[in-house]
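2024-03-11 09:14:02 INFO receiving multi-entity request
2024-03-11 09:14:02 INFO entity count = two
2024-03-11 09:14:03 INFO echoing inputs for audit
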Amino acid sequence: MTSLAAVSHYLPEARMPVRKYLESYGFSDDEVELHRRYFGFEEVRLDPAEAWYEQAVRAVSGLPDTGDWRGRVRYLIQARTMPVATVPPGNPLHDLRRAMDLGHTTAFCVTQHACASGLLAVDLAGKLLAAGGDPDALVLVLVGEKSFTASADYIAQTGVMGEGVAAVLVAPHGGRDEVLGYATRTLGQFSTRGMSADVRALFRDRYPEALGGVILAAVERAGVDLDDLTLILPHNVNRMSWARVLKRLGIRGTRRLFLDNLPRLGHCFGADPFINYTDALGQGRLRPGDHYLMTAVGLGATFSAMVLRR
Amino acid sequence: MENTQAPQADLNGVAQDLIRSIAEMLNRDPASITRETRFFDDMGFDSTSILVLLMQIENKLGFEFDPDTLEPEDLETVGSLVGFVSRQIEG
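2024-03-11 09:21:47 INFO inference complete, emitting structure
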């Protein structure tokens, strides 16, 4: 059964108050306050002087130094939201592949599920490892990115984007952090960037049902109940939208929803559930045997959920 | 016998203030807005503009609401929002 052998993350030191960030894009006082007080964003980490490559190297360097894991990695997958991340012919993933002694790996990107591509990459890694048949093989997934264009700095009324990279080592089996169920659904009618006001309203209406639907599907595939979940490790978007999803699922209160990072990190593209995982673990909120759920929504619009057992 | 007169008067006051704010925001006649009027279907609010309305009410009252206690059904009608605002004021 696919498992997460190790997860680490790196966050740049530089902090940017959300007020200053949004004001630089011409947001009014009311809009800034809306993002702060009602959506829950206070600051994000941004370091224009630090390249994605440097952030990714630091995330990988944070993985436990146990044995020769680098030699066991067969695939290096970058899970991205934005299809364009650099100016050709540069390729930071291949730079990292060389720098981290991963030259023997096959490296590629997945971007099709946007901010839900991290969960897609874990699922894909499990399938590649199962097909390869080597019980010692690993896949290294890198998720989280820097805004390459101004249009990716915020998603109005949804999220303020921050920087942060997670490195996830995926194994074909393992006693901990096993993937028990994964569900994903793409609603292609919301694929157009720059949706009209009517389509945006329809998207907001469909959001709780669509996200709640994949959460329930992942839980069912895992053979557990919603009540069995110790923690939900979400994508860090507008906390008001979470209230609607929890209500749809019949979950009272937000005790099991890990939103601690939303005010301090913003929405770190696809890295949110993995950063939230390491922080929840650090806080002692996940214990061996606990079931937990990672979830993410990507513009496009893809809704994904994955149930794991610590 | 329990006295329910005072809270009812407060609720009416909140309702009138709220209706005035909405009418101002939408530039429409306050008389056309009742407690049964729905924000989304009847007045064209969306999930963002209704929160802007809440912030305007906060500014008028000089009091900040707790967003964590706001439930989706609080934003259905003028009456349900009056209920939310009243609960917030009462603490």
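2024-03-11 09:21:48 INFO post-check: The radius of gyration of chain B is 13 Å.
2024-03-11 09:21:48 INFO post-check: The CA atoms of residues 38 and 76 of chain B lie 6 Å apart.
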